[in-house]
Design goal:
single chain; 18 helices; about 15% strand; alpha/beta; eight-stranded mixed beta sheet; six-stranded parallel beta sheet; 14 strands; about 425 residues
């Protein structure tokens, strides 16, 4: 199938590479010449595990351009995966999506080939059937559902595991203008996902709501586990890890994301939760669960900083290990590690920071308030107290000897081997009163 991917950023570049690697002919479109040049040279334009390997597998089936007129007329289906930034009211802006759709529509005017425009970016419920549809019809001169298709098909992926998530999704979600458009999109996925992967087809509004509802439900499980852990912080003999493991055994609940550690971060979870609450207000109803989930998440940084203050009164040097919002990505959006490091610096601590891949992007955000360290081991050796804020394999593999010397270690994800507890005071969140 001839496909087009509009937007070659953190999600679009992996999507283009995956689609081409399984046999589709793909043209990537981006207004950034550097991203286009990188793809045409076979180089990953963004850092993402597995992306370079997929580019090698794509071979001559993948090329890129800045020209919509070069890409759209020769394709059956275009994936629009551009930013939808959050506004002051918590809702997503469609300005980049609408701009891309208008460019696609303009390019379609020169051909009578049937084409499906697939919105992959996360949008608010009502957007696809509203201004996005209007922009496509006005620019193309076609009628959605007759001579042009319009689908909404967000991906359920996370930075650091984008390639894996694209190839092994729990489901494919399709909001469709009509069966013909949905059929074409579903056919494109047959080469990328395992046989038997559920394909949920519905109208635009249901699909739009499903996307943010899924992410909000996941964040609710995270905050629920952290709520239990906050109780266990104050209850002698209690251990949140034991409690949540038992909860997860109940088939009505399930174990995924039910772990007491730190709050959630990243470019999707926090804003999707806020967006669902904003949507509820706009509709004249309430999303109390979403708002409570967000409130629990926001107080996790204060919880950790308070625990550090009890464990290591000032003056003290604190090493914060983990600055990305999750391992294996340089992205620091809503990163718990960054927020904790910044809060500790404001509180007067000398803060050393380390991360295998996100150090530069974190320092760009925090500036001179913290001291970047070349390695996590160097940070640990110079600190009196260590806070591990991401479950990175590199931190779990640190030599136990570097924790010697009476250090206090707040292992928020419980990843350190038992040998460390033999030479340092290891503290876990949600395991009885500490300090």
């Amino acid at each position: 199938m001839d496909l087009c991917v509009v937007g070659l950023g953190k999600l679009g570049a992996p999507l283009a590479a995956v689609l081409a690697s399984v046999g589709h002919r793909v043209v990537g479109v981006d207004l950034n010449p550097a991203a286009v040049q990188a793809l045409n040279e076979g180089r990953a334009p963004v850092a993402e595990p597995g992306l370079q390997e997929r580019l090698a597998m794509a071979g001559g089936r993948l090329r890129a351009t800045t020209d919509f007129a070069d890409a759209i007329p020769a394709s059956d289906l275009s994936f629009v995966i551009v930013p939808t930034p959050s506004g002051a009211n918590g809702m997503f802006s469609n300005r980049y999506v609408v701009d891309a759709v208008r460019r696609i529509g303009t390019a379609l005017r020169g051909t009578d080939r049937y084409h499906v425009v697939n919105i992959t970016s996360t949008v608010m419920p009502g957007a696809t059937g509203g201004e996005i549809r209007a922009a496509l019809e006005a620019a193309s001169g076609r009628v959605v559902g007759q001579d042009v298709g319009l689908t909404y098909n967000p991906e359920f992926i996370a930075l650091g595991s984008v390639v894996r998530d694209l190839l092994q999704p729990d489901m494919v979600l399709i909001g469709e203008s009509d069966p013909r458009a949905g059929d074409l999109l579903a056919a494109a996925y047959r080469l990328t996902v395992p046989e038997g992967t559920p394909v949920q087809r519905m109208n635009w509004a249901c699909a739009e709501l499903t996307k943010i509802a899924v992410n909000t439900y996941v964040t609710t499980k995270i905050s629920y586990a952290n709520m239990i852990a906050e109780m266990c912080d104050r209850l002698p003999g209690a251990d949140a890890e034991v409690v949540t493991q038992a909860l997860g055994r109940d088939s009505r609940i399930g174990a995924k994301y039910l772990k007491s550690a730190l709050g959630y971060g990243g470019p999707c979870f926090p804003r999707d939760n806020v967006a669902l609450a904003a949507l509820a207000r706009a509709l004249g109803t309430r999303a109390d669960v979403a708002e409570a989930t967000d409130a629990v998440n926001r107080r996790q940084v204060e919880r950790v900083v308070g625990l550090v203050a009890r464990l290591a009164p000032q003056p003290a040097t604190v090493a914060v290990l983990g600055l990305s919002y999750k391992p294996d990505t340089p992205v620091v959006d809503e990163s718990q590690g960054v927020m904790i490091a910044r809060a500790l610096a404001i509180a007067g601590y000398s803060v050393l920071v380390a991360d295998p891949v996100a150090l530069d992007s974190a320092i760009a955000v925090m500036g001179e308030s913290v001291t970047p360290m070349g390695t996590a081991e160097a940070a640990v050796r110079e600190a009196g107290i260590v806070v591990i804020t991401t479950p990175d394999r590199a931190f779990a593999a640190l030599p136990a000897a570097c924790f010697a010397g009476g250090k206090v270690v707040l292992d928020c994800w419980r990843i350190l081997p038992a040998a460390v507890a033999e030479i340092a005071d290891v503290v876990h969140l949600g395991r009885g009163p500490a300090g």
